[in-house]
Amino acid sequence: MVDVVSSEGPAAGVVLAGGRSSRMGTAKAALEWHGSTLLYRTTALLARTLDGPVVVVAAPGQDLPALPAGVAVTEDPVEGRGPLQGIAAGLTAVAERASQAFVCSTDMPFLHPAFVRCVLGGLTPAADVALPFARGFRQPLAAVYRTSLAGPAAELVADGMLKPGMLFARCTVTSLDDARLLSDPDVARFDPDLDSVVNVNEPADYAAARGRKPAEVVVECFGALASDGRRGPRPVAAATLAAAADAVGLTLDRHVVAALNGDQITRDPLLPLVAGDTVAFLSADAGG
Amino acid sequence: MAPGGYFGRALVVDVAGDAATAAPLPLDDAVLRAYLGGVGLGTWLLHTLSPAGVDPLAPEAPLAFVFSPLVGTPLTTSAKFAVVATSPLTGLLTDALASSQFAIAGKLTGHDAIVVRGRASVLSVVLVDASGVRVEPCPELAGLPAADAETALSARFGRGWRSAAIGPAGERGVRFATISHDGRHAGRGGLGAVLGAKNLKAVLVRAGTKAAVADAPAVLAAARDLRARSFGPATAKYRELGTLANLLAFNAVSTLPTRNFTAATFDGAPRLAAEELHELRGVARNSCASCSIGCEHIYSRRGGGSQRMEYENVFALGPMCGVSDPDDVFAASARCDELGIDTISAGGTIAWAMECAERGLLDEPWLRFGDGAALLRALDAIGTRSPGLGELLAQGSRHAAGVVGHGSIDFAPQVKGLELPGYEPRTLQAMALGLAVNSRGADHNRSGAYEADLSGEVDRLDGGDPHVHAAIATEDRAAVMDSMILCKFLRGVFTDPFTEWAALLAPVTGWDLDADELRATARRIVTAKRAFNLRAGATAADDTLPARMLETPLVLASGRSAALTADTLRSMVAGYYAARGWDAEGRPCT
């Protein structure tokens, strides 16, 4: 169940989690994020956005925090060989089920579906990669790759060429600059500063990110849940579904379900919410 | 000796001329344990008593009123009865439930079921009590609404009698006429036309005996526990707003069928919503007999009077026909009650006719989506079977589309001839399967697969194997609930339903049964219904949805497209057959 369906068939998500987090001093994947972890937030965000599989690429033997239902894990063949190896492993893992994949790192706490959708839309038929050039930097870990690049990427790694740029030199890349990204009305509205590409690399980055006010979403309760003054849409600041429920005085139990943006029915309290979301809380005892 | 909760016999009543004969049909322990009661036992009775290929409106076609072991116990919501027959709308098995004192009085005539066959020479009623059966002519009741007929019958025969009656539409053979008692309809499939074809305005029953249960203290304890649980959060929706609470919620998730399934959201939904009506109208609550939930919400009508409103009648007579004025919908619902017709089939058939008229396939320029007066005019035409449009629409949308032609069957909102309830199959794809394969036709009470779609348990926009299993699970649960019989609005209070249901049945019947036995019972009942339909001529080709649903994606409010392809549905149907242990043509293998 997704926000985004690519016109080129299913689009997968690949999240690289095998980095050493040396500047952070602790595994970034497991950093707390509004009741879950950074990795949970990133994978769940992609799962709610894409119509293909979502895969985490971990270091060999790496312990990972809990993941959303349906998210798979694959491992880098060798530890510490950099992002191109992770890209190759991730594309390989999803190649049979998707023709393209949005690839990102685990530490992007403000990644927004509108940004993902925009980058996916930027992959022209002639291109192999849609590569944002955002906030002054090339963003190979917030880019879309054709899964057919899995083999070439693996060959480069095998030859000791470990940087994504080596791959870009050998394929067709569509670059998406700030202006191009912000020409997307949803990106302009919900991610005007292109915070989607913000990484947290050091404790101060994490503290600053964690200190931000959660995104504003619109919550509406229906039926019996709308009693006690809960009728009608209301804006609340909430990073997760549980926070949205809490903001309107609801408990997410077996009698309550939520519809995200009118499409996705969910009970995952840790589902990440983003600016522009609407959440409808419904009685789970549907029908009659 | 019969098991607790049973009498071990049905009464088969044959009406001929101005008299009736009656004979008991023994129901042994094995039959009762295998089919329980209600829909299950009714299916067995139809297998036993219905001649193959019989015209549903022929005198020899049986019409069964079936009770259950729980009827008459203090268990909440148990005062229910099933009416089972071959449907004049689908030509297949149909069963409908209603809740009222008729269930208790009918069972306490000393029978687990009362089956009526034959035909009276003039409009009559059949009276059944512990002392016997008789026929009384009642030509003075011709054309009366069922409620008025009940009042007249009570005055004539006394207050101890309870009557299941038809309105004028049943007398006139409208193929989606209902049978009702105390304002509650056995609504779907045209059972009222079956009773009307027997020239019977009503069946009256009077209690004259008692039904013993195996362990009365245990039944009382179970009843107290179930009653307490029935006040919990699982039933809050029904208590506080009633089923009409679905309307805004379904609109929010793009599953509110609108203008004959051309859209899944309706701009006028807020005007018809329970939340809105509760603020603007006087509202009263009521309960069925022996029910502690109290789901009925009765709204005051502008200009006087009141009307009970449920989601299905508001959906069918509101969004489905593009009508957003609540007073028009109230008036249309009241008219359906007076005529004695199923609101879902009435609304669906009229919505189809509105689309035909707008496309120029019907020369009825006044019949337009959104026109409440046109809706009422069409209902009257159906109820009176007026020549032309009324006669056409009284046959239901499938038959009418066959007459009109020009591809109008593609958008006739029906499966197997039964009009679709208010659940959009393209955005509820487990429900799509449930609607396609159900024995009764497009039906939300015998398959509640929407529960899986709306729980997040499956991806509701991408049908597949998980949807098959969800559809089977809800169909099996319904088969047991409709046979033991308990109201489905209780389903949320059970966390381990088959185990808990076995624990309810055991002290009533004295049977040592468990969840696995009840699961097998569910499968047996579903298969028996299937077998009856196959005998009546149904084939795998009937297990589908209207072409519109399979060829035209819906654009959702979010901008996404919801598509259900014929291949996806075929694949799910094939998976359903396989999981049921049936062959590739949907035939039970054993």
The CATH architecture name of the largest domain in chain B reads 4-Layer Sandwich
State the major sheet of chain B.
Answer: 6 strands, mixed
How many helical stretches of chain A?
9
Number of strands of chain B: 19
Rg of chain A computed from alpha carbons, rounded to a whole number of angstroms: 19 Å
Q: How many H/I helices of chain B?
A: 24
Largest sheet of chain A: 8 strands, mixed
Structural class, judged by helices and strands of chain B?
alpha+beta
N- to C-terminal separation of chain B? 31 Å
Query: Looking at CATH, which topology of the largest domain in chain A would you report?
Result: Spore Coat Polysaccharide Biosynthesis Protein SpsA, Chain A
Task: Give the rounded overall mean pLDDT of chain B.
Answer: 95
The spatial strand order of the largest sheet of chain B comes to 2-1-6-3-4-5
Number of spatially distinct domains of chain A: 2
- Gyration radius of chain B, in Å: 22 Å
Query: How many domains of chain B?
Result: 3
| Beta-strand content bin of chain B | 15-25%
Tally of strands of chain A: 15
CATH level 1 name of the largest domain in chain B: Alpha Beta
What is the architecture of the largest domain in chain A at the second tier of CATH?
Alpha-Beta Complex
By CATH, the topology of the largest domain in chain B is Aldehyde Ferredoxin Oxidoreductase,  A, domain 1
Shape of chain B: globular
